[in-house]
Write a structure and sequence with these properties.
With 75 residues, this protein is mainly β. It has no helices and 5 strands.
């Protein structure tokens, strides 16, 4: 008789459950964005399909924002 394999499932309250990765943010040229430090801006350049960095014009300054984009959000 073959031995059955038990499937181990993580309980929702377990401290050892697998971490869920947040979805990656993607920006395109022309996107309006807001940044926690720099304020409102517009994406004027994208490096590597926005996987590397985004060049943003905030009016008074231009900044190159790199991954992860924790402080930047698309409007």
């Amino acid at each position: 008789m073959p031995k059955s394999v038990a499937v181990r499932r993580a309980l929702p309250t377990s401290p050892f459950k697998a971490r869920i990765e947040a979805p990656r943010k993607h920006f395109a040229v022309g996107d309006r964005v807001t940044h926690d430090t720099y304020g409102l801006g517009r994406a004027i350049g994208v490096e590597g399909d926005s996987d590397i960095a985004v060049l943003v014009d905030f009016g008074s300054r231009r900044e190159r924002i790199t991954q992860p984009y924790a402080a930047m959000f698309k409007l």
